[in-house]
Amino acid sequence: MGKSKVRHILSISGGKDSAALAIYMRDRVPDMEYVFCDTHEELPETYEYIDKLEAFLG
């Protein structure tokens, strides 16, 4: 059996702490995957912040 590739996945809430961790990890784990669990009950500002963070993270 071949080695399977390890996936790194970081959950982002839209808050400052998860954003800071995502930015910190971006350079350390370049193939990091990010996930946001959308409850469809977030504040409009949260969606704007997530969009900006997504653009920044690439």
UniProtKB/TrEMBL annotation:
Q: SUPFAM superfamilies, per this entry?
A: Adenine nucleotide alpha hydrolases-like (SSF52402)
UniProt xrefs under Gene3D superfamilies: HUPs (3.40.50.620)
Q: Which GO terms describe its molecular function?
A: catalytic activity
Domain Phosphoadenosine phosphosulphate reductase residue range list: 8-57
Classification via Pfam families: PAPS_reduct (PF01507)
Protein name per UniProt: Phosphoadenosine phosphosulphate reductase domain-containing protein
